[in-house]
Amino acid sequence: xxxxxxxxxxxxxxxxxxxxxxxxxxxxxxxxxxxxxxxxxxxxxxxxxxxxxxxxxxxxxxxxxxxxxxxxxxxxxxxxxxxxxxxxxxxxxxxxxxxxxxxxxxxxxxxxxxxxxxxxxxxxxxxxxxxxxxxxxxxxxxxxxxxxxxxxxxxxxxxxxxxxxxxxxxxxxxxxxxxxxxxxxxxxxxxxxxxxxxxxxxxxxxxxxxxxxxxxxxxxxxxxxxxxxxxxxxxxxxxxxxxxxxxxxxxxxxxxxxxxxxxxxxxxxxxxxxxxxxxxxxxxxxxxxxxxxxxxxxxxxxxxxxxxxxxxxxxxxxxxxxxxxxxxxxxxxxxxxxxxxxxxxxxxxxxxxxxxxxxxxxxxxxxxxxxxxxxxxxxxxxxxxxxxxxxxxxxxxxxxxxxxxxxxxxxxxxxxxxxxxxxxxxxxxxxxxxxxxxxxxxxxxxxxxxxxxxxxxxxxxxxxxxxxxxxxxxxxxxxxxxxxxxxxxxxxxxxxxxxxxxxxxxxxxxxxxxxxxxxxxxx
Length: 523
Known about the structure:
Blueprint: H1 14-75, E1 79-82, E2 100-102, E3 108-112, H2 114-128, E4 132-136, H3 149-159, E5 166-172, E6 175-185, H4 191-194, E7 204-213, H5 215-288, H6 290-316, H7 324-364, E8 369-372, H8 374-384, H9 386-392, E9 395-398, E10 404-407, H10 408-424, E11 433-440, E12 444-451, H11 483-493, E13 497-502, E14 508-515
Parallel strand pairs: 9-11
Antiparallel strand pairs: 1-3, 2-3, 4-7, 5-6, 6-7, 8-10, 11-12, 12-14, 13-14
C-alpha cells in the first residue's frame, strides 16, 4: 500500500508557501525601509543637534574672548583713547578723577572703562561679524544696555541662582538665533567705576548675551542631511534589490518544488489507483479460489472412494496372476499417494486463500478510532493466551502503558500476534521472558514488546513484514508469513508505524508507534 505522506519532497503546500514568501519579502522590505528611515532621521537629528551645539560653542568662545579683554582693561584701570565723535567722553564716568586728560602735545584723551570698551566692540562686530554681543544688566546705567525680553528672563534666572548659563534658539529680527547669556561678576578692577553703585567683589553686575544666527549652521546641517539621504537611499535600493533578488530566487525554487509536488501527487494517485485495483484483484481472486479448492478436495475424496469400490470389483473379477499385483499396487499405493498430495496441497492453498482474504480485509474494513486503555487491552490478551503462556512457562511482565488513539479490536489483533510470535520463536535454552512497556509524549505513544528468543538477523528486519515471507519455511514453527504483514497494515492504517530491533541469539524488540491524540489514520 502507498503511504500518503505530504512531506516526502519537503515542499508540500507550495502555493501557500509562495504566499507566505511574498508576505515575508514584503515584511522584510517594510522593516528594511523602516530601519533606513529611522537611521536617516536619527542621523538628521544628530546633524541638527550638532548645528545647535556648534552655534552654542561659537557663542561661548566669543563670550570668553570678550571676558578676556574686559579683564585686561579692568586690571589696568581702563585705557585712554583720543576723544572723538565715535568715542566721546563717557558721561557715566564723570565721577572718576582724570576721566579726561591732555597730553603735552595737546591731544585730548578720555578714559574708556571695560564696559564702554565692550559696548563699542559689540557695535563694531555687529556690522562685520555674524555673532552679535550685548552687554546688559537688570539695573543698567545707560538705557542702551537695557535687556530685551529674553535677556531679562535669562538674567532673572541667573540672579535666582537657578543656572549659571542660559542658552536656546530664539527669534531675532524674524530669524532664528542661538542665544546665550552668561553673568558678569564684579572683580576688583571693576570697583573703580562701580563701587559708587554699592557693588562688591563677586556680585553679579549683569551679563553678556551672545547671539549667533542659525542660518549658516543649518545650511551645513542640511547639506550633511542631503548627503546622508543620498547614502541611505543607495543602501535602501541595494537592500531592496537584494531582498527582491533573494525572494525571486527562492520563489523559483518553490515553483520547481511545486511542479515536483504536483508530479508526485499525480504519480501517487496513479499508484494508489493501481494498488486499489491490485487489492481488488487479490480479494476477488482469493474469494474465487474457494470454490475450486472445495471442488478439488471434494473430488479427491470421491476418487478415494471410487478406488475402494474399484478394488472391490477387481477382486470379484478373474484377473491373471501376472497383472493382479500391478492393479492392486496402483489402487493401493499410487493413486492414494497422489490423492494425498492433491488434498494436502489443496489444504495449503485453502489456508493461503484465507490468509489473503485476511490481508485484504485489513485494508477494507472501517476503523473505529477511540481512546484505548492499553493496560486493560493487554490484560485481556494475556488472559486469552493463558494456555500458550503456561505451556511455554513464559514470564510476561507489563509496565504502565499510556492510552493511545486507535481501533481497539485491531490493536488487540496486533498485540496478540506479537505476543504469540514471542512465544513461538522462543530460545529453548532460556527461560522465556516477555516484557511489554510504553511511553508517550504530546503527539505519539510508543509501545515495545520485547522477548529473549532466537532473534532475527538484521538483514531480514524489513523482509519479515512482507507478505508470505518466512525466515525458515521448513522450520518447526508453522505459519504462512502473514502475521507481521497484517500487523504492519493495521498500524499504518491507524496513522502509526512498526519497527524491529533484533540480533540473532539476543531476542527481539518490536516497537509500535501510534498517535496519542485523535487524528485521521493513514491508508
